[in-house]
Amino acid sequence: MIPLKPLANLPTHDVTNMPPHLGDQDLWREDVALREGVAREGGGWAGARLAAFGRIAGAVEIFEKADQANRHSPEIKAFDRNGMRINQVEFHPAYHDLMAVAIANEVPNFAWNHPKPGAQVAHAALTYMFNQPEGGVLCPMAMTYAVVPALRTTPGVGDSWIPGLLSTVYDPRDIPAGEKTGATMGMFMTEKQGGSDVRSNTTRAAAAGQTSGQGAEYRLTGHKFFCSAPMSDAFLTLAYTDVGLSCFLVPRWTPDGERNNLFIQRLKDKLGNRSNASSEMELQDTWGVMIGAEGRGVRTILEMVQGTRFYCCFSSAALMRQGLVQALHHTTHRMAFQKKLIQQPLMRNVLADLAVESEAALALTLRIGRAMDQGVADEGAAALARIATAVGKYWITKRAPGHTYEAMECHGGPGYIEDSIMPRLYREAPVNSIWEGSGNVICLDVLRAMFREKAAVPAFLRELEAARGGNARLDAATEALKDELNNPADLELRARSVTEMMATTLQGALLVQHAPAAISDAFCASRLGARWMGAYGTLPAGVDFAAIIERASPAS
Ligand SMILES: Cc1cc2nc3c(=O)[nH]c(=O)nc-3n(C[C@H](O)[C@H](O)[C@H](O)COP(=O)(O)OP(=O)(O)OC[C@H]3O[C@@H](n4cnc5c(N)ncnc54)[C@H](O)[C@@H]3O)c2cc1C
């Protein structure tokens, strides 16, 4: 018998010119723009925590768990073996591991557990790092973080729920929250007949006892079309009373220790974000307690939405950063036409352009974080946080899908293959633009902020003026933006272009003030120049490509 030749010895399996595995990443130490930005915006005191977490979140093991959790999507288990309705969702063990790592490291609650200047900035940095390996777990983290201000409107309820949300223990047991060591929360706003248009809700709420209004018990009946993280311990939702649309906290278990009437109908089969469960839910005589003032439900739940929209900003910035890291790694090692790809002029243009976008997204996100920190005591900062969150939510999330796609293309064919992380980053990217208010709705919200918050536009313009004289294109863009803002004609029709101008001008102002000249010059010469069409790899000649790529490279 002829012995079989081992496959490894076949001439065709002599693998050359393929990059080595990237290995463990240090998502803090290897990200100069992140370290500088956090220090600049007031979160420097959290440096040691962030440094430790950068190694945890960047470990190969976490990336592998994220891969598993996304490959093995959650499954609904509506009934137990006896036919009893239990409304459970089963997750791959890797999902639970990721939840435990995130919660142990305060990804959902750092800002509330360390309430001092810079807390929101450090929180953003923590989450930015965790979102690089995994976006799905970020959904329950975002809602658990964002719900706290809304709960504080109703201390009687908030006092019993907030401690569990601030816990660093992940407790996935489906038991009453009072018996658990930690809790998470979700949010149901969207119904079939209306998502953005929340006033078209059809869910009704009737007082369950003699009292009504804030803090009173109600019974809710209706349906919700998008309910992510349905294994959360409680949810904020909207329903009509006779007074108007109101906000309610609906727990999985009633105060009597019974399963609440939450009926998960099915899980959504999603494009991306597959480790996270998103469900459709029926409410039938479901127990709830009113949060915030009766008839002011939209205002109350918007307290939460401000936070989830902030999450969308740094989630998309994180996807950009990780795509860039992957692209830099691949092109550093792969040869084509006698040169490393990273040495080919046109590839350098693409990589540098991706790096500029990534840094601009991060700079804006961290600046919003500082405005949120300062907004606690400063009306102007609060107004800036309000409008800049909407501007950032629109623009950063809008730029992310093209960015991940371009980073994927830097890999050539292997980038399109599931062995690489790039398809997962790419599938994840659009969701931040769609949920928590889709693009148009967010631009209309920018207009709302402009007109309702008198301090918003002046605070925004002050940010731009701080960079005056630093770059001629930026100065011209600031003047052009002022003209746009002063022109009331067809403002709704122009809301996207106005928001885009606000975003790029603010990013330019931040980079001119704080980033190396190579970055800010490239940003202003492209995004604020006359010929920019938005595609990556179109930076003009004269840009310092070497400096930009060097700064973005993990090894720098
Ligand atoms: C994966 C995933 C998970 C989700 N999880 C949750 C969740 O947990 N809880 C929850 O409440 N929701 C959730 N959503 C729902 C999401 O927030 C909504 O889908 C989104 O806000 C848009 O609402 P809609 O689907 O009803 O679209 P519509 O409101 O019908 O909007 C459709 C399009 O029209 C645009 N549009 C709407 N109004 C206007 C206008 N006046 N002018 C111009 N254009 C307009 C929108 O921008 C959008 O592009 C989730 C969505 C996804 C994809």
Radius of gyration: 24 Å
- Bound small-molecule species: flavin-adenine dinucleotide
Biggest sheet statistics:
7 strands, mixed
Shape: globular
CATH fold node name of the largest domain: Butyryl-CoA Dehydrogenase, subunit A, domain 3
Q: Secondary-structure element order, as H and E?
A: HHHEEHHHHHEEEEEEEHEEHHHHHHHHHH
Structural class: alpha+beta
Compute the number of helices: 19
Annotation keywords:
single chain; 556 residues; alpha+beta; Butyryl-CoA Dehydrogenase, subunit A, domain 2; Butyryl-CoA Dehydrogenase, subunit A, domain 3; 3 domains; two-stranded antiparallel ribbon; 19 helices; 49% helix; globular; binds flavin-adenine dinucleotide
Concise synopsis of the structure shown:
This protein has 556 residues and is of the alpha+beta class. It is built from 19 helices and eleven strands.
